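Bug report (template v2)

What were you trying to do?
Predict the complex of my protein with guanosine-5'-triphosphate.

What happened?
Run completed; filing so the output is reviewed.

Input:
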Amino acid sequence: MQWLASMDEGTIERVDERRNLLYRQDEIRTKAFAANLDQALILIAAEPEYSESQLARALIACEASKIAPIIALNKSDLQVPFERAWERLSAYRQMHYGVLPLSLKMSGDADREALFKRLQGKTTLVLGPSGVGKSSLVNLLAPQSKAQANEFVKTQEISQALNSGKHTTTSTTLYWLDATRQTALIDSPGFQEFGLHHIEPTQLASLMPDLAQHLGNCKFYNCTHLHEPGCGVREQVDFEAKSVISRRKICARRYQLYSDLFAQLNTKTY
Ligand SMILES: Nc1nc2c(ncn2[C@@H]2O[C@H](COP(=O)(O)OP(=O)(O)OP(=O)(O)O)[C@@H](O)[C@H]2O)c(=O)[nH]1
Ligand SMILES: [Mg+2]
Ligand SMILES: [Zn+2]
């Protein structure tokens, strides 16, 4: 949308065409995150422990909307839980997405500069569960913006004393990171459930890159990759491997996520 600001009000000059729209949908409602995005930064953290199912769903929604995802794992200063989370992410590290390790709390100028480079000239939505550091990221890159993250709220001590020390984000807000307004970061409230009811089960495999690379090798053109003989996807699933697997193979957990999601989307009620 293009705005023209006047004294005390604004006039909408024109409404631009939507390039894309990222949303989630459950049985009850559709919730739009944001439109006209260049990329989505899916932020998870060493703590709270992330849900692989929600991560996989967020990635699928990005693929379906043709929005490039970046996965980042924050709080690398919390060594033990960070290493555990990093290990759990091995399948995602091997996909072309990769995983960006972060410690937003400890970040210096060089880290901020490197992060800015990945966002420069683009509009990026930051999404992820509550408490992972989405607002902390906005505050690091746009310190004048004062997005509500815990440590930036002056009343923190007081509210903690009152046992309500959380300053969770409740609305989606766009922040400009440069004076020329080329680079934008959108802070959003943490989500718990990422519904994919807007996606057809038969689309799923093409939206999961590790499965998608084997499409076209199945005996049946309408293969669901669940039980059919001669399935080129299923034969690539590595049911034995524990953590490090080859790029060509499909991690058993990812395949399980696929079949669970397929079943869920196949039985949806309207
Ligand atoms: N240890 C550690 N804590 C961090 C780091 N980054 C952020 N935090 C803390 O994590 C907590 C949550 O940070 P927020 O930025 O408010 O998280 P959020 O993702 O915006 O949370 P919601 O708004 O509820 O969705 C705060 O107490 C931060 O200080 C980090 O790198 N290491
Ligand atoms: Mg927040
Ligand atoms: Zn198949």
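What did the reviewer find?
The helical segments are 52-65, 79-88, 90-94, 109-119, 134-141, 156-161, 209-212, 252-266. The longest strand covers residues 39-45.
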